[in-house]
Predict the 3D structure of the following.
Amino acid sequence: MAALLWLIGGIALMAAEILSGDFFLLMVGVGALFGAVADWAFDNTIVAAIVFAVVSIGLVTFARPWLKRRMHGELIHTNADALIGRKAVAVSEVDKEGGRVKLDGDVWSARAFDDKQTISPGVSVTIVEISGATAVVLADTD
């Protein structure tokens, strides 16, 4: 009887995965199916629970990240996130109050990441954050 409950639970979790698309419920559902097989084979709920836990944790830890990368691809940063880490050049003095930097031919308003730092025009900077329409920059130490 318990094996049937494990089986129904596993199928229900795998079906619910359609709504989430995160592959978590699928992994736990497969763990429940393994728990059903263990309960049927050993007729022991404790053994079935241990098999369920080990298989579920193993799948969530190892198979899920691989499956997510395979199905969704690597994370591609867009918009403001894509600018973080990029190099720019100060076109005016940049301090905690503001300034201007040139990034890929476009001039951006900017401010220094370090409140005590003043960046001179012509100095290479790295964008560490985008705050609204302002690039928060740090002078490169070459």
